[in-house]
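Handout, page 2. Input:
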Amino acid sequence: MLVGLVSIPLPACAQPDDPPATPTPLSVLDTIPFDYINHIFVRVTLNDSLGAVLVYDPVQGVLLDERFARRNGLPTFGGEEVGYGGPVTVGGAGSAQHTVTFARDLTVRDGLPTQPGSTFERSFPLTPVIPLDSMMAGALGRPVDGLFGIDLLAAYVLEFDFEHERFVLHDPGSFAPPPEASAVPITWMERGRKPAVPVTLHLTDDEQVDGLFLLDFGMGGALRLTTGFTETHNLSERISPTISSDSETGLGGALQSLFGRIQSVSIGTLRIEQPVLSMAQETEGADAYPEHDGLIGLGLLDRYRVFYDVPGEQLWLAPTPRAAEPYIYAVTGLRWEAVDRDAAGELIVHSVAPNSPAAEAGLQPGDQLLAVDDTDASGWTRREWQTMVDQTAAQESGQKTPVVLDVRILRSGTVHTVRMSVVRRL
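Output:
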């Protein structure tokens, strides 16, 4: 932040170097703010009075967290009580299944109860309620009140403006993509409910594999291949080196993955160099043997201005400066919880992976981040932390020698400084 600058107004004729203001496209109807911390968090109001933060995700409608419903006195009913004939279960990435209950007659609008006006409002006679927070809070780094389905804003051309953390809602009838955007056709899969796009994995100059990948706006990673696609094309052998990991979490529990780097990937006509991807190893769950071949997540999409055109069945990707940044797979073993106290953001250690650099440094759940080396880190977001880790890892030598950071934390009222390595794996 620049402080103390004095602005002296000049006549219009004396400002030849001022850049022209960027006009708002005529297609823009409205905007909806979101928080972006590896996932998209949308603030909404339920039943006209109850504030909630929902994660934008490729589900239909709204799903609520079980603890959130209980905490706020929302009565729930079993599947047999609402006409399903018996208990209902749900799963996701991972093998676990969870019992679903239902809340009746829920209304949802954007914005918190204290914010007047709204862009959309929807009513649902039945809303699924599942134990989201207990399953996903660690992976997301904050409590989870529910999921915000991709169909809620499907009437618009939906622009994901990650830089300004907002949705921009465009009129499909007057929308024109920016000239630098690449068009990618959308195919509907999973009984016509989920969008997929054509993808080509370039393993070498002479080897490539084609597939249909779902747009997973609820996945923090860049690219994930299903177990079936990986096995069919023997990719765990053809992509080398690979690193095994079980640190990711899905709706169905812990994920088993192999991480690797490939020469490039094409999404439509867009070519992306040297991406890191994960290959699912589960034999059960949504990433095992589904209809689609893989997932494209926010770890790739957030480098672009994304225009999700459901009415026109097109995806448009316009590169931002981040599109040219390298894809890094670096390990610290830390998961952070983003805490908002008196409007001052704080990063609190949520968990520490065993035998990780963070564990070796002595970091513990509950530690509050204050500084990294000589840089004040109070108020950092998880994204700023990850950017620092990636930039640090990119400095490592060809032998991948770890870089050591002095991390200052607050623990039980006392300031400590620990030395932590950042290990680049790919």
